[in-house]
Amino acid sequence: MVRNDEFRETGETTKRLAEYIDALRRTRGVSQLQMAQAMRDTTHPSYVSVRLNGRKAWNLDDLDAIAPLLGYTSAMDLIGAARNWRKAKD
User: Fold this and answer.
1) DSSP string of 6-47, one letter each residue
2) What letters, b where the CB count within 10 A reaches 16 and e where it falls short, cover 57-90?
3) 66 lies in a domain?
4) Nearest to 56 by CA among 23, 24, 13, 27
5) What is the pTM of this model?
6) Do you know which InterPro entries this protein is assigned to (predicted)?
7) Radius of gyration for the chain, computed over Cα atoms and rounded to the nearest angstrom
8) What are the tens digits of pLDDT across the range 10-37?
9) How many domains does the chain divide into?
10) How far apart are CA 82 and CA 17, in angstroms?
């Protein structure tokens, strides 16, 4: 397992997307375990956690897998909504 201080610094886009996904999953009552299971049966919730905290970037396949849990049809729709959400919030 990788320690937190061993993670490479992520960019602003990664952090903003993580913030949006975490806020959305909390609003919709989606657990980290549900997100992990949607990605792969073998995905551990800690994999989801480091992405929700913005310490690692989401990949598009994972975003495609969790998008339906969050009310979207694809990663592209989810990313577009996150972009608009940040503009409205900033």
Assistant:
1) GSPPPPHHHHHHHHHHHHHHHHHT--HHHHHHHH-TT--HHH
2) bbeeebbbbbbebbebeebeebbebbeebeeeee
3) yes
4) 13
5) 0.85
6) Lambda_DNA-bd_dom_sf
7) 13
8) 899 999 999 999 999 999 999 999 999 9
9) 1
10) 6
